[in-house]
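Pilot study result, target chain (585 residues):
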Amino acid sequence: MMESQQEPKVTIPPLIPLEYSNRVMLKTILECGDDQIGLFGKTVVVGGWVKSSKEVKREPVAAALKPPTAAEAFPPSPGRKELSCVEVVQSRIPFFKKIIRVFGVSSDSYPGVREKFEPVPKPPPPPPSKFFVQISDGSSISSLMVVIDSAVVPVSAGHVLPTGTCILAQGVLEKSSSHGKQTIELKVEKILHIGTVEPDTYPLSRKRLPLDSLRDYPHIRPRTTTVASITRIRDTLDFAAHTFFHNHGFLHVQVPIITTIDSEGFSEKFQVTTSKKWGLGSGSDADVRHETVKAEQHIEARDKSKLGTGVKPEVKEDFFGRQSYLSVSGRLHLESYACALGNVYSFGPRFRAEKTGSIKQVAEMWVVEAEIAFSQLEDSMKCAEDCFKFLCKWILDHCPQDMKFVTKRIDKTIVHRLEYMMSISYERISYREAVDILRKVTDKTFETKLRWGVPLTAEHLSYLADDHYKRPVIIYDYPKAVKPFYVRLNDDGKTVAAFDMVVPKMGTVITGSQSEERLDMLSARMKEFDLSRDQYEWYQDLRKHGTVKHSGFRLGFDLMVLLMTGLTDVRDVVPFPRTHGKANN
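Predicted structure:
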């Protein structure tokens, strides 16, 4: 006897409310695939912001109350002649009586009117409406259809919930009544909260605002599908970076944002001061001590006036008692911990006061910096390449829905490019080899004249990665004049152990170097840069007391987000971008 075939069991995914807000994330409802059928009949609380809404009014019954015409009241029948005008008027006498009653005329005034009039019936209440509202809580690309019946939930008929309205509702999950993409919707039983919006001034009332227009509303733009997707990718990339370093035995160290040293020597910095000299306002306002940040122009990295040992009187009275800046790099501070703990990394904002119009740089950018003890340049280059590939794979594995959206809306080739960069080896060439390749180019003219000893421009780097090799390129052994003072001098005395990783369609994403561990060499390099020995005494101490070979790198986190999303302007991936002349929030 054959066994009876059992029906497949329906998997019911858990709908666990968030611990601190007692609502269910829409992602757990919308991204459970075929298991959605197991959610039907579940009562949940959801919250979000209205993406779109539509009111559907039920068919009114007014047509049934309309008085019939004479032809409708007395349709002609076979063998019967049509009524005359007098007969029609006589048939309408009851209707005229009601009109007389409405105008307050007593029936006693008319002997022919004897019967008592019935009161005129009140018009029925307006028919209930149904609201079909798409809401998003930022946890998913998709939005949930919320159905509100005004007969059950008191929502004013004719009051459409406009885009941007915040809603918190309790209801039952049901199979979608529409024939759209969604298979599930929420039938609302109770509205717990409505946060109204002013449609006339709400920036997102218009559909599909371009990204450059959204930059004027950094506090509102996360509600758009595109910026929400970018933010989720950024969050995942953040977690991936920490995961990579923790998996490889690195310790996370927080380096200072305020510093008294110039770690790069090539960048304009923000000076931090509490001096009244830079106070705001006049009169009584000038007496108020303001914590301000002033952009200090440092065109000449070797300007003795800013790096000399002499301290100006007004600086002595300042908060720190000496010139202080917002940090451009944290690698020098990381070195002190690497020389004690081994492998360390830092993750935080770095600041540059350059008045540039570059679409790949803003004043405040987040970077990941790593320092590896007992290592040389080759080790740092390998670690940087492994980290880059790890981040690419992590995003593809953990952000499938967002990457699908990015592919559809922004860059159709982005997933293919990331997969390609994960699977190939990267080209490694010296600076000298790069210059030789570029000099032989005949089908392209570069704006900047190329010669040995000058920095490679973005145009040069783009050609090498996009056109010549068509893959990421690691360029190493740069001339010593174009890299910071702390980079280890090579045996030729002309180049230093530094590298840049250049990625197609992006440019330089990672820069790194082996630091100079020899005290005499470091002192000579500091002298070349006219750096104050007193200012860097603590840094020299690391070479006096247990020096060790060490190397590290710096990964532009914002540039990685830019690469992962296929966008071209870093202002679209930084939550609150700060640029020259603009810091709205």
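One observation from the pilot: The radius of gyration is 36 Å. A full batch analysis is planned for the follow-on phase.
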